[in-house]
Amino acid sequence: xxxxxxxxxxxxxxxxxxxxxxxxxxxxxxxxxxxxxxxxxxxxxxxxxxxxxxxxxxxxxxxxxxxxxxxxxxxxxxxxxxxxxxxxxxxxxxxxxxxxxxxxxxxxxxxxxxxxxxxxxxxxxxxxxxxxxxxxxxxxxxxxxxxxxxxxxxxxxxxxxxxxxxxxxxxxxxxxxxxxxxxxxxxxxxxxxxxxxxxxxxxxxxxxxxxxxxxxxxxxxxxxxxxxxxxxxxxxxxxxxxxxxxxxxxxxxxxxxxxxxxxxxxxxxxxxxxx
Length: 275
What we know:
three-stranded antiparallel sheet, mainly alpha, 3 strands, globular
């Protein structure tokens, strides 16, 4: 009798969870998803007022601690906003997965959501995946990045916001682009190299591109595996844990990771709630 009750309770919990997820999916309109994935304005998460304002001249700060606090305070609101967008997308992925596991075919709206998420998180067309495989991959890719990790990478890559790429193009993350005129030509670019340092239209565009890059580029698969392993073990996804998966972000490899870990330790107290 006890076993029967246990099974019944578990079954009921699964049914309730599935219903909630299906209802959740229906709340997302096609237009909302298109706004996030195509225009990058977010799922009804309004752009911030300071997103397009000129980047503050952080070099004006005589006090190092005050400069660090100002730098973190400038970036934090947009980082929070982008993570909120990713969370909404993640909810959609789980809702789609619940429908699939119930062997329900996607309707037109649901299929469009699925297609847009797959496109945003860059699934190669020469290696077609099944719907099941795509959803499993989306679960790994569509996830937040700890705020503290983004902050210390931004500080490291931009020299605490002092680089010309950050000041003139909102590029706090050392991101490259490969189309002529897409950004700034590095002064020390190797002969024959064609990359440029990307220039973004505003802070929102820059942070979104960084987050998307970490979540979909093959070079950061290790980070995503670490994150998923922590999720499955119901353990906190911390900046220190994920930093270990960033060896491909810099040619310095382990030295770069060690530097990020040191920066996380030293600057935690200056990040407010991010640490």
